[in-house]
Amino acid sequence: MLGNFSYCNPTKLYFGDESLDYLNTELPKYGKNVVLIYGGGSIKKNGIYDAVVKILKDNDKNVAEIAGVMPNPTVDKLYEGVETARGHQADLLLAVGGGSVCDYAKAVSVSVNCDEDPWEKYYLRFEEPDCETLPVGCVLTMVGTGSEMNAGAVITNPKTKQKIGHVFADEKIMPKFAILNPKYTLTLPHYQMVAGIYDIFNHICEQYFSGDDDNTSDYISEGLMRSVVHASRIANENPQDYEARSNLMWAATWALNTLVSRGKSTDWMVHMLGQSVGAYTDATHGMTLAAVSLPYYRYILPYGVQKFKRFAVNVWDVNPEGKTDEQVAKEGLTAMESWMKELGLVMNITELGATEDMIGGIADGTLIMPGGYKVLNREEIINILKESL
Ligand code: NZQ
Ligand code: ZN
What we know:
Helix content is about 45%, strand content about 10%. It is of the alpha/beta class. The protein folds into two domains: about 10-185, Rossmann fold (3-Layer(aba) Sandwich); about 190-389, Dehydroquinate synthase-like - alpha domain (Dehydroquinate synthase-like, alpha domain, Up-down Bundle). A hairpin with a 4-residue loop joins β6 and β7.
């Protein structure tokens, strides 16, 4: 391992089917005014809302609500939430939902005491907060993003067709605590479950397919990837399998809580492509990644053959005997493709609503990141997007 780094992750996790009880441990640490933030209503159907509200009442909290946080939360919704949190003089933002709700709570947290426009400051100029931020707690109901234990907050501006993620530099933006009860994920529709599974897997890929140094992170990543593939097959057959869903939940957290990126370079181009597709289509995050992944990886494979070969052997058990490195590397991606199809992932952006005439705009909205085996230019992005149609 060659990189220099610091590592701190202050999020306290409570994991398991009784973890919500620990909300009683956390709430007394904060003031009386809580803003409860949730999505489009799934938590009202499955009873999580009632359980959380009861605990808030038992702890004598004064609660305001921000409801209707949509998947891929928008900048207008952010402005609305900032007003609610200000009006309520919030002491704690409690996010109950998936990555969208959790990301949104972090975006409100950095915006409540900010005098400038948060979209311009945090998402266009990528500045860090210089105001006081609010503590965020999270009760997670959807698995995939890792938002429960990181400082990322992705916001979409539908008017300008930009979907931008800001990973805040200061770990104080990470949730103060997160409650992870795998049972809460059992009501997820199959489409969301598998989209989340691919999101986990791709987070690991983005941090794995970069650099050629020998580092501990890559070994951790291979273990996590094997666990995700194993648990996903069980969950796909039987979505009610608690053990598999529990492993997926834990793997998701570790895939993107900053651990496996320490001391190494990372790529993130699949996310940059997927986010721009999302800005045009409002499609489910994990599906946008699935739809662009193979055209991207097949394109960059020749520039990173050794890593793709290692992936094939160590993650997919491809037998390298009698084959060239490139053949082994390609077989790894073929194995990944079969697994993706087995799960029922969306394998092209057409199915997500993207059309040929959008390609130029999607390419323009794709942030080009260094770190991958080949830094793409606009023409290469266009070709990859066309391959993804
Ligand atoms: O809104 P409700 O009614 O709650 O329904 C949600 C939503 O429709 C539903 N859902 C969640 N939990 C459920 C449930 N339905 C039934 N039972 C449950 N237990 O699932 C749908 C999707 O939820 P959402 O929160 O949008 O999904 P996800 O967790 O995938 O979050 C996606 C957002 O996170 C961002 C994405 O870009 C996207 O905006 N990301 C955040 C990252 C981070 N913070 O580091 C990294 C990721 O790469 C990602 O970009
Ligand atoms: Zn993701």
